[in-house]
Amino acid sequence: MTIKPIALASVVVVAFAAGAAVSLTTPLTAQSGRSYFTPRSPGDPAVTPFSGAVLAGGTLYLSGTLGLGPNRTVPATAEEEATNVLNAIQAQLKEAGMTMDDLVTIQVFSPNATNYDAFNSVYRGYFTKEFPARAFVGSGTLLFGARFEVLGIAVKR
């Protein structure tokens, strides 16, 4: 069976989005030298089938994160949702001993490009040094009706 690249990309985006509601736990360090944050739990079908972040060789790979409220509710404003998602990214980085300034690249997915200015108005306040490289990508519908899904890569400065 052959998987077409477009189908694979769709699966990856959906998989990243599903993990946003899972909270971080202490990293699980495997013999491979990798640390897993929010590691999968093979015996628990309620846990999403991926890790929230993986630290490998000094590089932290952050899965897609949503900025939803309690019970997966969409916040009233785009600014509030942007704050939630960036706070979640910041918490993931802190758990790995990093800060927002350690981000090298960010990808922001949004089904509505008119949310670009609202996202930027919040985003600017999270950095004290140079901004990471970034893409703001118009996407299809995100899980649970979210306005934003953010993923990134960080390397400690």
Layout of secondary structure:
Layout: H1 5-18, E1 28-29, E2 34-37, E3 53-56, E4 59-66, H2 78-95, E5 103-110, H3 116-123, E6 133-138, E7 149-155
Parallel strand pairs: 5-6
Antiparallel strand pairs: 1-2, 2-3, 3-4, 4-7, 5-7
Helix pairs in contact: 2-3
Question: Given this structure, which CATH class is correct?
Answer: Alpha Beta
Query: What proportion of the residues form beta strands (DSSP E)?
Result: 15-25%
Strand order of the largest sheet: 1-2-3-4-7-5-6
Which oligomeric state applies? Answer: single chain
**Span from first to last CA?**
43 Å
Derived structural class: alpha+beta
The count of DSSP E runs of length 2 or more, i.e. the number of strands, is 7
Largest sheet: 7 strands, mixed
And the CATH topology?
Answer: 60s Ribosomal Protein L30, Chain: A
Categorize the overall geometry.
Answer: globular
According to CATH, the homologous superfamily is: RutC-like
Low-confidence stretches: 1-31
- Order of H and E elements: HEEEEHEHEE
Provide the number of structural domains: 1
**CATH architectural group:** 2-Layer Sandwich
Provide a count of the helices. 3
The radius of gyration over CA amounts to 15 Å
Instruction: Average the pLDDT over all residues and give the rounded result.
Output: 81
Helix percent band: 25-40%
